Amino acid sequence: MSSVEVNRAISLGRLPHGFLGRRGGISVGECAGLNVGLGSKDDPETIAGNRRLAVSALLPEAELATVHQVHSAKAVVAYEAWPNDERPRVDALVTDRPNLLLGILTADCAPVLFADHDAVVVGAAHAGWRGALAGVTDATIEAMELLGARRDHIHAAVGPCIAQPNYEVDDDFRARFLAPDPDNARFFVDGPNGKPHFDLEAYVVHRLIAAGIGEVEALNLDTYADDDRFYSFRRATHRGEPDYGRQLSAIAIPG
Predict the structure, then answer these.
(1) Residues 244, 35: contact at Cβ < 8 Å?
(2) Whether the predicted pLDDT of 20 surpasses 70
(3) Integer Cα distance of 53 and 193 in angstroms
(4) Is 1 among the domain residues?
(5) What is d(CA 21, CA 54) in angstroms, rounded to the nearest whole number?
(6) What pLDDT does residue 58 have?
(7) Which stretches does DSSP call E strand in 100-205?
């Protein structure tokens, strides 16, 4: 087991945060590494151990709050960590409480971490294509505003997700994005097989900028291409692997 790799965003400053990958965990097999996904077939005790390692790498005294992600555009305020069987079915969470680590799990979808350093409010969102299109980042910003944040003071960072060269889709997929805004065509290019490829990271960045966020940062890390560092659902599917891990992205307010 190697040490946990923590990818940080300049825009989030000194707040405890990180976009983790698979390095530094105790899982073996298809999920080898730092698998924190309760939905995987990995051993539950191993997953719990990986979660402890992840928390220790970011803010050892914190509680980890995660949600049951359903590709929605819903956000909730977290005051404490929920038991696993009571996690709300949403895709974003925000807080103004110290020592509460807000965690999002991904394996190709885009994790987005938010911080208003002035109001001391943080947030985390899981932006797959469905949630991104439906407005999960907008819902996160609105939930932060309820806690006193100002959107022009919010910094947001988009972490590891599948990059456009590896995100082949079909014409129906592209049509879903063109229907609400024909200008969304700029997030698609034709791939080598003649099928469209979607730029999820760029689209999420666009939504954040359009919402009036003060600063947006993209880490430009491709989950599909770097199997040594990140889990990828699509890569596992293409390889015919029976299971895949999930990585954690999290942020907290220190006590």
Answers:
(1) no
(2) yes
(3) 41
(4) no
(5) 10
(6) 98
(7) 100-106, 110-116, 121-127, 154-158, 188-190, 196-198
